[in-house]
Structure prediction request, 1592 residues.
Amino acid sequence: MATPAHSLSYAGCNFLRQRLVLSTLSGRPVKIRKIRARDDNPGLRDFEASFIRLLDKITNGSRIEINQTGTTLYYQPGLLYGGSVEHDCSVLRGIGYYLESLLCLAPFMKHPLRIVLRGVTNDQVDPSVDVLKTTALPVLKQFGIDGESLELKIVRRGMPPGGGGEVIFSCPIRKVLKPIQLTDPGKIKRIRGMAYSVRVSPQMANRIVDSARSILNKFIPDIYIYTDHMKGINSGKSPGFGLSLVAETINGTFLGAELTSNPQGQGVAVLPEDLGRNCAKLLLEEIYRGGCVDSTNQSLALLFMTLGQQDVSKVLLGPLSPYTIEFLRHLKSFFQIMFKIETKPCGEERKGGDKVLMTCVGIGFSNLSKTLK
Amino acid sequence: METKDQKKHRKKNSGPKAEKKKKRHLQDLQLGDEEDARKRNPKAFAVQSAVRMARSFHRTQDLKTKKHHIPVVDRTPLEPPPIVVVVMGPPKVGKSTLIQCLIRNFTRQKLTEIRGPVTIVSGKKRRLTIIECGCDINMMIDLAKVADLVLMLIDASFGFEMETFEFLNICQVHGFPKIMGVLTHLDSFKYNKQLKKAKKRLKHRFWTEVYPGAKLFYLSGMVHGEYQNQEIHNLGRFITVMKFRPLTWQTSHPYILADRMEDLTNPEDIRTNAKCDRKVSLYGYLRGAHLKNKSQIHMPGVGDFAVSDISFLPDPCALPEQQKKRCLNEKEKLVYAPLSGVGGVLYDKDAVYVDLGGSHGFQEPDEASPTHELVQSLISTHSTIDAKMASSRVTLFSDSKPLGSEDIDNQGLWMPKEEKQVDLKTGRVRRKAIFGDEEDESGDSDPEDDEEMPEGDRMENSSSDETEEEEDAEVTSKVYMADKGAKRQRLEMEEDSEIDLPAFADSDDDLERSSGDEGEEEEADESSEEEGSDAEERDNLEPKTIGKGSKSGLLHSNGLSDRLNLEKTMKKAALTTSDSGHCTAEEAFASEDESEGSSSLSTEEKDSEDEALVRKKFPKPSQAVSGQKRASESLIDETSDIEDLLKEEEEYKEASNYSTETSGALKWKEDLSRKAAEAFLRQQQATPNLQKLIYGTVTEDNEEEDEAGEELGGLFRVSQPARECKYKADSLDCSRFHLEVPHDWDLEEVMDSIRDCFVTGKWEEDKDAAKILAEDEELYGDFEDLETGDVHKGASGLDTQTEDVEEEIKEEIDSSAEESAKKKHLDKKRKLKEMFDAEYDEGESTYFDDLKGEMHRQAQMRLKKHRWYKKILKSRDPIIFSVGWRRFQTIPLYYIEDHNGRQRLLKYTPQHMHCGAAFWGPITPQGTGFLAVQFVDGTTPDFRIAATGIVLDLDKSIKIVKKLKLTGFPYKIFKNTSFIKGMFNSALEVAKFEGAVIRTVSGIRGQIKKALRAPEGAFRATFEDKLLMSDIVFMRTWYPVSIPAFYNPVTSLLKPVGEKDTWSGMRTTGQLRLAHRVKLKPNKDSLYKPIVRQKKHFNSLHIPKALQKALPFKTKPKTQAKAGKIPKDRRRPAVIREPHERKVLALLDALSTVHSQKMKKAKEQRHLHNKEHFKAKQKEEEEKLKRQKDLRKKLFRIQGQKEKRNQKSSLKGPKEQLK
Prediction:
């Protein structure tokens, strides 16, 4: 019968999201100990607590036990329920922090998820909502999760530290995922971007656009950077500005990069010109890394490959980020799946750095929560 | 005489040759094909009617669409596992006979006793696993799930039996395998007509059950206790050419039909604690999907377990190697049935017996029947493979001493211990294998080992100076030893595609011992001193490296030449090392003649001539693994290279490619070391460090962590310096990938490095627009080629793609297999061993669905009572479900969904309707079919399947509700407001229900307003009308019902032998009541009593005076005024007559009576008279009418004639008239 060894145990709060998400998908309980045990301020932070609360909202029947100091967390996953949910995210982290995990879980809900997230839309730590919208959603589409209801809408922008942004994310549900064969990223055909500014002069966005274009124009002429200046209640509680860029290839690969101004009252003021240039360089860096999925969404793609049908999935990635590497390890412990990893040296071609070809056979995951009618 | 008997030549009427001839004939007649016919005679094919054509088109289209299926991905591997053929039928129908006949038909070998599954090679590309299925419902359920083909035996003399229908229903639920009916006992019909009728009747019934046109086979009768050869042959043909449509459940779940099992638990543990956890290994072909190591599995009839290890084994019943010929030769017709003791190996409760075939077993090994090949090969191996491996030595450096496997550290492993039982009477020797624990085995100087084989040891010790005959005896005993070894080896390597020979294809001949030496060798096996001396002889060079290396194969060094064999396929480190007990120093002196005399399984040669000689004897070309390398002594410098590589190999455990080495015996030896080196370098290049970086280090980390945790248990703890991992433990959780050293994008060369990533950059040759344009013409040319029938280029690409994928999959499997050691151990619970019964241990199929593991949830399903089941099912009665692979007992709740989506509890399932069922059990994907049986024990003449259905949903929340009516009574009534008590117990409860709708029994609706203070729980309510004190007020509420968390897997296979079908789980209350003779005490109020109706008295209608006044006269009650009292003066006085008067009166009375009587009579008479008169009159009248009628008729006729005449005359005109 049920064995206690069935649950997994970890120490430390790092990669908390991965562990909880994989636990939810695999149904294996997870125990995380020593969460900031040696810290002056031990235990779970606000944003982590908020994340756990979010998980509780979208699942049904999960058991969460946290000890008094918050240093130990036991999570027994329930059933992914979905439906219409609202959640106030912590302003310590961006909405991207929560959204990344939701992207992993949303296709496997019982009812299609439609969630309103409130908090910080763009910050310097997490991938912003803009970038996720332009890069992560295409990844979902590759796996057959598409349709009208796959949507990520930014209603209000909120910058740190105040927050006040609002995002609506809705995702259809799928019973099974398609295997993918993404081995050729193709050539970049266009670059799009979004320069936004809230509670600052609308001119800032234009200045960002100009400087970013100055760099990118050397590579490709098809560049269009939208400016988005939100006003009034839609502009959140704190001032700020930023730029997110995305490069689209002919094979439907999206590589993104972004940069945001320093939050109000922290660090020195950033010139929009510098920000634009730096962001453009970050995009070039991302292009240099290359791959069919950009560095932020590597783990998402790998997860869906794992959960796919019992067929071979292949994806070409840029260098694996530390987050992804840890994610691979977690995939192994939760799903017993090991990827075949081959490095593809760049050679003489002027196509950026070494690439990694990831191959796996899906475990044949099927959405168990979806109701049959 | 002979000429008379000769048959006349018959022309072929069918087949390719006949068709060709027909065609030629037609051409001679100037008649072409059908198309020409169309041309020749266009009128015959012209459209006659558009409507009819449309109709026929519709019809064909309809038929076509009916045939459409959802495309199914066929994931069967290139070499598919054997097809599971389940022979099913009621008892005494001829199942075993049929199996025996089939086996005999395919293999030309007769199996007398069939226990468990029998695997046979039935064709070039097909193997069959035949299992018999009795009428135990557990067995039927389990086998229906794994069957690919069901041979449904029907006793024609009796007709269909319940089992057949039950099995069909089970199949319908769990995915319908191919079903073929077989009618037996047809010889019991005396008359042909009767037989025909019976056949037709059964056929049509069978068709309604399966599908119209389902194949039904007739086995007309028995000849010498067997079915007729021709019929069996036909049946066999049908089976071998049959095509199968993959079943969804089977293809999406890995499962194993275990054809063998072994208990690896330490007997001592069992002795001390009969309920100890068992370690059991199961053997079988993996079917369905990939099975992952360390996964959760389910064994039907046993329970849920975790796999401790999985490994590849050589195929015990391999398909013949691809050869261009029509049929199999005798040697390729293999049988594998370990439980039946085919092939001389018999497994029973706790021993393994090898049948030697008596004292003649060895005399003519070549003549042994092919099915005995396996055993023969085992027998003929003089030393065990383990022994060979152990004794093999390697010299790493040319000047170093050879190194044996003893030097490699002994790791634990599970091995059977042997016990020899010599049957002196028959000359047969049986070797009993007792399975011990790993610890016992690993040691070289295992005292138990010695104790267990005293006779063997004695014999061996004295062997050196034994006489010829004795030597013979010795050989046999040796054989057993060898067998043991071989068996051990097979134990680990069962399931591969080769019988173990490939692994040792190039190992040296001297591994094969001569019988003369064997004694010493065996002695060496047992004695540790010898080992010690061996060890001294050998140079212990880099033991770890060698350990890893030898894991992958065997290292062997000869006195003459240094040879290095690296086999990566086998990878049985644990094995090799632990088998060191079988190593001998004397092996090298094996005599050649002995090795020649025995047709050995393992292909070992000492010298090249020998090698060639022995090679001829092997039934199959030996397979060598490409990874095998040898370092010849001449290449000293290269050996060091290899040594380096060996070191690396330890890190890179990549799957090695299998390649068949079929070339000459010597050729392959050339340049081996160079090849090896190259292969390694290639591999190294192919395998990036990344994989190790990601997966390799993790495990180490974990281990270290574990160690660190255990290090100190006391008060004080050593604060370890934070390693990188620890350091990271609490760091920021962020998915963004920040580069420490970004490129300087202002530099031209840096910018250049990504130039080609853009469409503006340089394109690849094959994608460059100009190139593509230039190539277009060539492409066109290709296309033309295609039309003429040349190979399409795209297709080849596709092929490679699929091959790639397959390889990938293989690699995936390999990698997972490599990680683990080479054995499959399953943790089994208690009892299994003592309960083991070969006949029954066949329904094992492992269930694994990574995610579903041990999760138990509430599942909702749509269920319908089977229409043949006699009772309806009751909620909360335990019932046995068969869902997925599992059989388990649980307590379901039945419900029905109301129109508003409410799921209302039902006490019983509806008689003929679907209803919902919710239970607490394992997670099964939606859409999975299931069936329910009430009991699995005992026999019942009735249909056993209680219900069938489908899993709809998995949920954790309770949704099922039952109706709850709360009642109360008014205690104070105002106009429309009443105070009601008795419904609730407290004001809080009332508050919860404020605003709720209430109703009286008479139908007056109302609402709860507010709680009252005075009697606790009373409230104020308003109604649409005034209540009466006698009214009862009630409120309808819905109460959620929790589902009992009861899950009890049916562990019927853990029952002792012969009681497998007696498993009974939780009993229903009804059963318990019956058992304990407790009568149900019904609620008195619920009893039915005769209805006694009281007579109703109605009061008279009283109309008020005022109303009466107002009424119109017509409706006014007509009340007659009472007759007032008559005053005395008005009353008449009574008359008193005189006697005379009285007489007169009496006379008058009499007279009047007479008169009246007279009158009465007269009246009657008159009446009669009148009647007669009336009749007469009527008659007259009738006659008159008739007369008149006739008269009239005459008249009219005359009139008519006249008229006619007139008309005629008028038509003729005046002239005529004139005329």
